[in-house]
Amino acid sequence: MIQYLQTFVAVARLGSFSAAGDRLGLSQSAVSTQMRKLEESIGNELFDRQRRGTVLTHAGRRALTVAERIVGLYDDMRNGLEDELLSGTLRAGSIMTGLLGEVIDAVVEFRKRYPNTDVHLTPGSSAELLAMVEKHILDCALIVKPPFPVHGLLSWRPVRNEPYVLWVPQWRKDSDVGELLATQPFIRYDRRSHGGASIDHFLKQRKHSVKEFMEVDSVETIAMLVARGLGVAILPSTPSLKKLGLEIREISLGEHTFFRQIGLIERLDNPRAHLNNEFFDSLLATSPE
């Protein structure tokens, strides 16, 4: 049956039985016979034989979508049984904290294990990358878990949880969170982002009154401003900030600590699922505990 599906996909892509036969090394009559048997098997006509040329029926167009998926999965299974045979291009995305954190290490590990693969990396915000995965522009993306349920054709695989902490310049010795928030200029993480909204909720819930100095939509930029002594900020304790080597230190929020979850988002119908699986394993292998 897989051969019939492969032939069906070839006919649909190439536009004729004869062209598909030439591509697959089959006679036109053999292609026609396979398509008849496929139609009998699924109980629907795939081609409109009343019209000139090779025209798919409505059922044929729907069947083609499924057939391409099945043929892709079959090829993935055949090519992915051994590491050295794994091939293809992984189109991955990542938030900037991921790119500065474990993603580069994961790509190095991934390419070391699977030298016949290529990786295309796209940076972006969590919302932007999620939309690109939904539209099949990306195969997967390392993002912050969305504030809404992930369901349908989307799949979520957690990598780690990052606690939010108060970041202060390294030279500051005091560690009273309430006092620092009340007396020092506060650099706010953009409230339009999920992280910024979570921080805003924490401040309101704990009734912290802050001296807001600036609002920025970049964890790394805020951390650099803190390092220059321009204020304090609540941000996640993420590996990328430690890699930047900034002269800042983190203060725990104690029992009121809240978290953001970092993970891999992908579509369940992605034909490159085997590459996503291996990339996820590389992320886990290189992600800090």
Automatic annotation (TrEMBL):
<keyword id="KW-0805">Transcription regulation</keyword>
<dbReference type="GO" id="GO:0000976">
    <property type="term" value="F:transcription cis-regulatory region binding"/>
</dbReference>
<feature type="domain" description="HTH lysR-type">
    <location>
        <begin position="1"/>
        <end position="57"/>
    </location>
</feature>
<keyword id="KW-0238">DNA-binding</keyword>
<dbReference type="GO" id="GO:0003700">
    <property type="term" value="F:DNA-binding transcription factor activity"/>
</dbReference>
<keyword id="KW-0804">Transcription</keyword>
<dbReference type="Pfam" id="PF03466">
    <property type="entry name" value="LysR_substrate"/>
</dbReference>
<protein>
    <submittedName>
        <fullName>LysR family transcriptional regulator</fullName>
    </submittedName>
</protein>
<dbReference type="InterPro" id="IPR000847">
    <property type="entry name" value="LysR_HTH_N"/>
</dbReference>
<dbReference type="InterPro" id="IPR036388">
    <property type="entry name" value="WH-like_DNA-bd_sf"/>
</dbReference>
<dbReference type="InterPro" id="IPR005119">
    <property type="entry name" value="LysR_subst-bd"/>
</dbReference>
<comment type="similarity">
    <text>Belongs to the LysR transcriptional regulatory family.</text>
</comment>
<dbReference type="Pfam" id="PF00126">
    <property type="entry name" value="HTH_1"/>
</dbReference>
<dbReference type="InterPro" id="IPR036390">
    <property type="entry name" value="WH_DNA-bd_sf"/>
</dbReference>
